[in-house]
Write a structure and sequence with these properties.
This protein is of the alpha+beta class. It contains three helices and three strands; from the N terminus they run βααββα.
Length: 62
């Protein structure tokens, strides 16, 4: 079964190995890309993976 395209806050916390509160804090500070559906946050797996890569390899200043 292929991985689901959209993740819940709990799944993102598990994926990033952080507390669920940290995910809420980052997304409300607009530091983590997500979309609110009703009262719940959802995160597209591919966008989350690109965001994580950008955090590991920040652009260098020239």
């Amino acid at each position: 079964m292929p991985p689901r395209e959209f993740l819940t806050t709990k799944e993102v916390a598990r994926y990033l190995r952080v507390n669920e509160y940290t995910v809420y804090r980052l997304v409300t500070q607009r530091k983590l890309p997500g979309v609110k559906v009703g009262s719940q946050w959802r995160f597209k797996r591919s966008v989350l993976e690109r965001w994580l890569e950008s955090q590991l390899n920040p652009p260098r200043e020239q």
